[in-house]
Amino acid sequence: MTKAAESKPRQRRSFGTRLMVLVALAVVLPALFTCVILGIQLNRQARNLFANGLAASLETFALVLQDAERNVSEGLARMAADNTLQVTLDLEMKSQLNKYLDAQRQVLGMSFVAVFSADSRAVAFSGDESQATPWRLARPGEAPGAGCVVARERSEQLAECDGALYLIAAAPVVKLRDTSLGDAGRDQGSQILGSILGGLPVANSSLIGELLSRRVLHPLIWAGGKLVYSNLPTDEALVPASFDGVAHEYDVGQTAYLGVAQSLLVGAQTLDYGLVMPLDPLQETLRRSLETVAGIGVLVVIATMIAISISATRLLRPIEQLRQGAARIGSGDLAQRIAVKSGDEFEALADQFNDMAGRLQESYADLEHKVETRTRDLAKSLQDLHAAQDRLVQTEKLASLGQLTAGIAHEIKNPLNFVNNFSGVSVELIDELKDALVQADVGNDMRGEVLELADTLRGNLEKVVQHGKRADSIVKNMLLHSRQGSGERRPVDINALVEESLNLAYHGARAEKPGFNITLERAFDPAAGEADLFPQEITRVLLNLIGNGFYATMKRKGESGDGGYAPTLLAATRDLGDKVEIRIRDNGTGIPPDVRDKIFNPFFTTKPAGEGTGLGLSLSHDVVVKQHGGAIEVDTEAGAFTEIRIILPRGAAAAKAAE
Which pairs count as long-range contacts for 422-429, CB under 8 Å and 24+ apart, including other chains? Predict the structure, then answer.
């Protein structure tokens, strides 16, 4: 019984059933996940849109407050400068002064306007007569802003009076001298007749009405942490979480709101303002949107399940055919062919079964081909290793030269910084000298001569600063190009690299020999584009070649003594497809034929002792050929010219050139 039970075939579950379960899970779970994610996104986007609308309304609120503030300050300033006010105040014509104030107050839309004499005595008032007595100017040492006390001559300020907060402006009324009186008017001078102040409540009906007309439904105003205005249907005071314009949720009177708040600087005081909107309409709209999305998702899932059920029946038929055919091939019937004509992947799978035996021999040939390919790859890796070793040696050669250049540049930079700094300080001292001279009791002729000398000295110092900064730029470039190591290999604009090297070499030569002069010509190919290289190393090569060209032209000029000889150096680039060419040509002494083959040998030089080491062209050859896989060629004629061509590959450096 036990053996019979062990030999009994294991009961298998239907593949179709498992397929339907997996497909159902694959459809339902993503659909539910998508609905959840979509609901979260809808909620986030809706809140963002709501917050953006609040931010726009807050900006409108700010504009309205700023308009009111500007209207008060500018209106009071115009009234203070009005001749009518000055005359009536000077003569204390109270009747005419009151009429003038009434007319101006109505035009400017202010709640009150008051005029005080020079000794702070109230002269005239326009507005609610109950407010005429409380308003007064601050006495010396008295703090303004509370108890109807206003700071004298402050164009923008906040003040509390009788429990209300006002936007206030105050300005002096000054009687200017009369220019029509000639010398008598000149001696008369200006006279302060008094002060004028005016304002309106921060939460006045006009301002609130304008906010409501612009759909700012629930504006809020605070001053000193105290709520000044609110039209929320509750007595509970709302305390803002921040005044940075960021939206926050609030629960006021069991109602959820989304609100923002900011601060407005009124003179030296701060006025806080904000607005809130109820979240109930947003949440109701979001709920309806989520219900719609969920309904659509359920319909999509049902339709998908029906379509999958129909497709699964057609899918399982070729699977059964594949199973039967694979069983016959597994039993040894290699001539068996599986006939599946479903026109899809199952037919392709059956064809692969049928071709499996014939492709076995091809696998052996493919294996041999792979072995040969791997062997070539290993040989190339070994060659790349040798090239890397050569680059390491090249880096060590350039390290000592970079250290020497960096040390010299650092030593030059310190005194150069002193020159620049003290020249700038001297310019400031000259300005102070001129200011002191204007106030000094000296004759006009002497003052003019000293000022002229000061201007001349200032111009000289400015030229010192200008040329000092130019020298500092040259030193910085020397430090940049003398750093040890090859740096990072990266795509570099060839034309820009050659232009930078040409300028650096020219400024270096000018700094070394002030009388140095040469004509620089450029012939850059716009199609030269970029090449993948070590920019520091190629810059060193170009600096060396350009420096040799400068030396050759100056040597020929000194030897010939021909006044018609013009030293010239040409820097050119050319696009060669997958390569790029750089040419440096000079009309100097050229290279004699007997030394042409030795110029790239280490320590070979034709320069006098102390002027050359014989390493420049040798290191340049190693950088171009060994490090970058390029080529360097020389074309020269003794006594006429020398042209050196550098050819660099655009891509990664090639293997080391064959020896």
Answer: 423/461, 423/464, 423/465, 423/468, 424/465, 426/457, 426/461, 427/458, 427/461, 427/462, 427/465
- DSSP assignment string, 372-401: HHHHHHHHHHHHHHHHHHHHHHHHHHHHHH
SS3 357: coil
pLDDT one-digit tens code per residue, 88-110? 888 878 888 888 888 888 888 88
How many C-beta atoms lie closer than 10 Å to residue 498's C-beta?
24
CA gap 523, 541 in Å, rounded: 19
Residues ≥6 apart with Cβ < 8 Å to 20:
308, 309, 312
Please answer whether residues 21 and 312 qualify as being in contact, where contact means their C-beta atoms are separated by less than 8 angstroms.
no
For 2-33, how does the pLDDT look when each residue is reduced to its tens digit (9 = 90+)?
A: 444 444 555 555 666 676 677 777 777 777 77
User: For the chain, give me the number of helices (H) and strands (E)?
Assistant: 14, 19
Helix (H, G, I), strand (E, B) or coil at 39: helix
**Ranges assigned E (strand) in 269-326:** 269-278
Structure tokens at 57: 């309304």
For helices 345-355 and 280-330, the axis angle rounded to 10 degrees is 30
Cα separation, 360 vs 633, whole angstroms: 54
Residue 216 has which token pair?
């700012």
Helix, strand, coil proportions of the chain in percent (round to 5)? 55, 20, 25
Q: What is the 3-state secondary structure (H, E, C) of 114-180?
A: EEEECCCCEEEEEECHHHCCCCEECCCCCCCCCCCEECCCCCCEEEEECCEEEEEEEEEEEECCCHH
Cβ-proximal residues to 650 (8 Å cutoff; 6+ apart), any chain: 529, 530, 531, 532, 578, 579, 580
Q: Is the dihedral of CA 72, 76, 77, 79 positive or negative?
A: positive
Give the distance, in angstroms, between the CA of residue 328 and the centroid of all CA atoms in the same chain: 70
Which of helix, strand or coil describes residue 222?
strand
Residues 351-377: pLDDT tens digits?
Answer: 777 777 556 456 656 777 888 888 888
Residue type, 110: M
